[in-house]
């Protein structure tokens, strides 16, 4: 049963569908999503990718071995009670932020297994990283399926569920921190005398190149930092100012604040 059904057709669902098709992991005929009379999101996704869109839960789930839960987190409590039986024996993959496995098991009590995943927004272009945890041990075929479905967004990392709040604080929310840093670099370049367009391009390319250099090598970030830094040079002057303002401490507080908020939301 290689068919996959999506409860939700937003950006992340669209990214998974596109990734699965582009990588040849599924054909459009093996994918369906749930639509509604008041929202054209599912119909638009179907028109763009060739997958099926339906307003009927039974039609959606018939023949599907995997169900991806990709609606809004607050919609979980509003899902049709018939899903408990309609998802019997199916693998549930949830990308709902803050919804724990125990809570998901209440909605899908007859699923053969449930996976809670935390993707991030670069997954929209296949450059994301997704951490996941399962309710119980996964069969080998389901593990391979997880790698395919979540791998459509980029890299995949298995963790314990107790670590998913920290994952949310780091990689889930992390792109926003990077975007904020990019904006800060741009604005600093303007303050130093560059025009805005040049400052923006220089900031983006600096981030891209630095990330690639870090990813493709085996050196720690500190080692690469030191390779750029000459004693009493320009980089040293900048780093000294960052240290004086406790840049690392600010980032630590940022991630811990997001992690704490994720923990709060998970208790709802």
From TrEMBL:
The keyword Oxidoreductase applies. InterPro entries: 6-PGluconate_DH-like_C_sf (IPR008927), NAD(P)-bd_dom_sf (IPR036291), P5C_Rdtase_cat_N (IPR028939), P5CR_dimer (IPR029036), Pyrroline-COOH_reductase (IPR000304). It catalyses: L-proline + NAD(+) = (S)-1-pyrroline-5-carboxylate + NADH + 2 H(+); L-proline + NADP(+) = (S)-1-pyrroline-5-carboxylate + NADPH + 2 H(+). One of its GO terms (molecular function) is pyrroline-5-carboxylate reductase activity. One of its GO terms (biological process) is L-proline biosynthetic process. It comes from the Bacteria. Its main location: cytoplasm. Its EC number is 1.5.1.2. Signal peptide: none annotated. The keyword Cytoplasm applies. One of its GO terms (cellular component) is cytoplasm. Residues 161-265 form the Pyrroline-5-carboxylate reductase dimerisation domain. Residues 4-98 form the Pyrroline-5-carboxylate reductase catalytic N-terminal domain. It is found in: Cytoplasm. NADP(+) binds at residues 7-12, 70-73. Pathway: Amino-acid biosynthesis; L-proline biosynthesis; L-proline from L-glutamate 5-semialdehyde: step 1/1. Gene3D superfamilies: NAD(P)-binding Rossmann-like Domain, ProC C-terminal domain-like. Pfam families: F420_oxidored, P5CR_dimer. Keywords: Amino-acid biosynthesis, Cytoplasm, NADP, Oxidoreductase, Proline biosynthesis. Belongs to the pyrroline-5-carboxylate reductase family. Catalyzes the reduction of 1-pyrroline-5-carboxylate (PCA) to L-proline. This is Pyrroline-5-carboxylate reductase.
